[in-house]
Amino acid sequence: MGLTRMVVKKYMKRHSMTNTGLVLSSFFCCLGIYLFVAAPPELPDVKAAVIQDRAIDVSNMFNAMNAINDAARRIYTSRIVGGGKEAGLEFGEDWAEPSVDKGPLPALFTRLVAGRMESKPPPLGLYLGSDKPINQSNLFSGQQALGFDRLKETQLSVFLKSDDAGYVAMYPDIASAKPCVSCHNEHADSPKTDWEMNDVMGATTWTYPRDLLSSAEYLEITDAFYTSVQEAYQTYLDKVEKFQSSVVISNDWPEKNKRALPDAATFMAAVQVESASTVLNDLVLNPSAKFENVDLPGFQ
Ligand code: HEC
After folding, report:
1. Cβ–ligand 1 contact at 180 (below 6 Å)
2. Alpha-carbon span 195 to 148, nearest angstrom
3. Whole-angstrom Cα distance, residue 129 to residue 201?
């Protein structure tokens, strides 16, 4: 891991923010554990990849960022919103209003993450779109609408080249729990009121202008995305600090009769454990996905 550590050091020098260092070092700690526990034979390949600064396909980067986003959304939805409700915490669309003591709904948490990523140098775009959205700004149009039609048929991710957004990856967002269906069906702004379990409700959509990245760029994007998740979660904690009745912020998770929330480091450690193996595999092992040109016959 000597070389990797050097890369990290160079990184930490360039981004002198301490939380960047924290995010990266705990990420590599997770990678270290993963390598040691799950995949010792792969170690030489990792070294080779670092030494050669091998080019990485953009689809691998999309897969890895999607795994981080999925882990963050899953943990936020089940442990923060699910556990938080048991503890008496509230979540809603109006969470950002100054007089309201609530946290963001999962879709709005994803939007916060996307907003933080937008403020950083790597040109990685993220949004949660649909063809029947509650919020009209989440409506797919043009080539992404065609891509979403394809995705609904196959329920598989779609990789396409589009004229306006460059390389695009769309991952199905499935109605995996009853509240997805009931909240959307009952929402006053929902154009569709007969969602059912396991429907494809939308797609997590990623955009990037180029097809190849150096491993240094891959690390920079990984770092920036983990940091964006952390900042989004911190935005929620900052709001919680202003609540009328207090919530204990430490290394505890909320549950029945426990008005507690994990601090940003505890939340991020959970996200990193769930996503580290995919981030590593997409750096060195996974074959890249094939991008389709939406103008080709057959893509409709
Ligand atoms: C308590 C209500 C609620 C629950 C539960 C909920 N959503 Fe949503 N969802 C919303 C709202 C409100 C928006 C619009 C957010 C915005 O303004 O961007 C939204 C946005 C979305 C979008 C983007 C398109 C759109 O409708 O604007 C998708 C896709 C989506 N949700 C899927 C899901 C899935 C899948 C689940 C379950 C895992 C889920 N939602 C659970 C309320 C909910």
Report:
1. yes
2. 17
3. 9
Q: Is the CB of 133 under 6 A from ligand 1?
A: yes
Token digits for 298? 């057959």
What is the distance between the alpha carbons of residues 274 and 293, in angstroms, rounded to a whole number? Answer: 32
- Counting from 1 in the atom list of ligand 1, the atom nearest the Cα of 128 is 23
CB of 175 closer than 6 angstroms to any ligand 1 atom: yes
pLDDT tens for 216-240 read 999 999 999 999 999 999 999 999 9
- Tokens found for residue 274: 């769930």
Please work out whether the CB of residue 102 comes within 6 Å of at least one atom of ligand 1.
no
User: Tens of pLDDT along 105-124?
Assistant: 999 999 999 999 999 999 99
Cβ neighbours for 187, distance < 8 A, ≥ 6 positions apart: 134
For residue 132, which atom of ligand 1 is closest to its CA? 26
Residues 6+ apart with CB under 8 A from 185: 192, 193, 194, 195
